[in-house]
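Good day; I would like, with your permission, to put a structural problem before you. What I wish to show you is a protein chain and, alongside it, a tokenised description of its three-dimensional fold. Thank you for your consideration; the sequence and its tokens are set out here:
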Amino acid sequence: MGATFSVNDPHYVSYPREIAEQEYRNSEERARPSKNGLPKYDMPDNISDLERLETQHYLMRYLWQSNFEAPVDEVLKSSDAKVLDVGCGHGTWIFELAQEYPNAQFTGIDTESFLPKREASDNVNFLEHDLLHGLPFSDNTFDFVHMRFLTQYISEKTWEDVIVKELVRVAKPGGWIEIVEFDYPHYSAGPKTRKFTKAAMEFLASKGFNGLLSLKLPSFLKATDQVDEIRKHDKSIALGKWAGKVGEFAIQDMALLVTELRGELSSFMNISEAEYDQLLESYKEEVEKYRTFFKTHRFFTQKKDASKLEK
């Protein structure tokens, strides 16, 4: 099954500004405000000292006002709760939750180049492993399995044939699986932005990756025949200073991502790296003019209990 993409996708329609702003305002509603009416989580004052993966964590935590969507809060307070973060990166998500839930045991897994260098606490363990070869854990091990932002690292076929099946396999019956992803296409996009994101989507597709994996994940999960209802929540992230601090941080993060792709993507587009840099600057200007944003998704589902799995 190859990745599919159409330039006629409605994601590429340039929304009127008022619609774009309303989409963003809807996304900005605070899901979990504190008792004084302020957000539970705020953004850092600046990100100049943060790496891109850390910036992503703080953006998502602020946007969703939580670190996860699955109803596992009470489970994580248990002394025998086990949590797995697949593709943990520098471990920012794990370190934060390990402090909030000191009774739970957290395991992060990723390749060596991404794993954190700092010392872990007693309830945190990190393991170097190539995810493409499956997960090195026994069946029914974890109460909560979490995975975020690996669209650009894993082919659609591997997601379907290996990754999703493995996430479900290592979850305990009654345990929860949560996958967080974003869509590469932009809403309310200007012409240079549409050119940029179209090229990025086609480049991903040429490598077997799918920049709209969110459309496929529910069917991949359902195909395991081991999970109950698959729930999906969506939120938009605005790009640019027009949306305040979060938009400014978001465009910096996205600019870093496309900068990392400069060599391969400029070659794919048959343009020089200097032309690519000019296109990137136009992109950053257009997100302000058109009030551009993109969408993120949280999928979460519960593995069937033992009685259902036996049927």
Q: What stands out?
A: The domain at 10-28+47-303 is CATH 3.40.50.150 (Rossmann fold). The two ends are 29 Å apart (CA to CA). The longest strand covers residues 171-182.
